[in-house]
Automatic annotation (TrEMBL):
Transmembrane segments: none annotated. InterPro entries: NAD(P)-bd_dom_sf, RmlD-like-bd. This is SDR family oxidoreductase. SUPFAM superfamilies: NAD(P)-binding Rossmann-fold domains. PANTHER family: NAD(P)-BINDING ROSSMANN-FOLD SUPERFAMILY PROTEIN (PTHR43242). It holds the Pfam family RmlD_sub_bind. It comes from the Bacteria. Residues 11-266 form the RmlD-like substrate binding domain. Residues 289-308 are annotated as: Disordered.
Length: 308
């Protein structure tokens, strides 16, 4: 049972199917990602405790992956109560509904202050914004069950032309293909991780019933500006369209300066052998075909301040 049917939830569901399993996506709205095509879906509002109980009873899963709630960090900063209701209270409702089922929660680097270059599992949490506070509440609600694994991920990217809020990679590619400038913060740092790597880790970790907290991030610490330039060069597009700006004047102003993670534990986990995350250049090469192909429908260029 995958709670959340956005780009990441859909890709996790697709990975489960590729491995011969069955995934049911549960969310307020039907999935739009192409990876979710043909997948079972059930309507679910996690803010409703009875609906959570009914969904678990109807789906009868052997495990739950929670990747629900608004991920637009700027929106969450403007609507902190709604963010907490979806992430914090929603996860508490799931915790009460799942009984003894194992649960994996996809969490975020925004649970940290961002004053250090990078954060490991043992570092002290200090949320940088409303989104981070809501996700930390979700972590605690599920970890209290004793059967949950929290997988904190850094900035997830992929080719997502169908999403209502495309990720950073998709938005950069669209603007560059259209010959439009990309204004990218040079003082906001991430460790980007490919969506397929997150899906692969999620399914393997859930299969082993591991619990606790684990970090997943790409192997490089990059500013948004440097990364946008790498995307342009990797796809043969005009890197001169990428222009550095200060984070403070963009939609990223409420985010930690260093939204970067690393893991003290992952190298010792045998189930992750052979699943090490790709760097952004290899990730771009893998995405180049669909990213450079004509889209099915005309698209409106994204605003200059792109979101995740």
């Amino acid at each position: 049972m995958v709670v959340g049917s956005g780009y990441l939830g859909g890709r996790i569901g697709a990975r489960i199917r590729e491995l011969g399993g069955r995934a049911v996506l549960c969310s307020r709205r039907p999935p739009t990602a192409r990876s979710s095509t043909g997948m079972d879906w059930r309507e679910l509002d996690v803010r409703d405790p009875r609906a959570c109980q009914d969904a678990v009873r109807a789906v009868a899963p052997d495990a739950v992956i929670a990747v629900h709630g608004p991920s637009d960090i700027t929106w969450c900063e403007r609507h902190p109560e709604e963010a907490m209701a979806a992430h914090g209270a929603g996860s508490a409702n799931l915790a009460a509904a799942v009984g003894r089922l194992p649960v994996l929660l996809i969490s975020t680097d925004n649970v940290f202050a961002g004053t250090r270059h990078s954060y490991s599992e043992s570092d002290e949490v200090a949320p940088a914004n409303a989104y981070g506070r809501a996700k930390l509440a979700a972590e605690r609600a599920l970890l209290e069950t004793g059967r949950a694994l929290v997988l904190r991920v850094s900035l997830v990217y992929g080719w997502d032309p169908d999403g209502h809020r495309p990720n950073y990679f998709t938005t950069c590619v669209r603007r560059l293909r259209a010959g439009l400038p990309v204004e990218a913060p040079a003082d906001h740092w991430n460790t980007p991780v490919l969506v397929d790597d997150v899906a692969a880790w999620s399914t393997e970790l859930l299969r082993t019933r591991r619990t606790g907290v684990l970090h997943l991030a790409g192997p490089e610490r990059l500013s948004r500006y440097a990364w946008a330039g790498r995307i342009a060069r990797g796809l043969g597009l005009d890197a001169g369209l990428v222009r550095p700006v200060d984070k403070a004047g963009t939609a990223y102003a409420c985010r930690p300066r260093n939204a970067c993670l690393h893991s003290e534990q992952a190298s010792g986990l045998p189930e992750l052998a052979g699943l090490w995350p790709l760097d952004v250049d290899e990730g771009t090469r893998r995405l180049a075909g669909p990213a450079l192909a004509p889209e099915r429908f005309p698209t409106v260029p994204a605003p200059r301040s792109v979101e995740e």
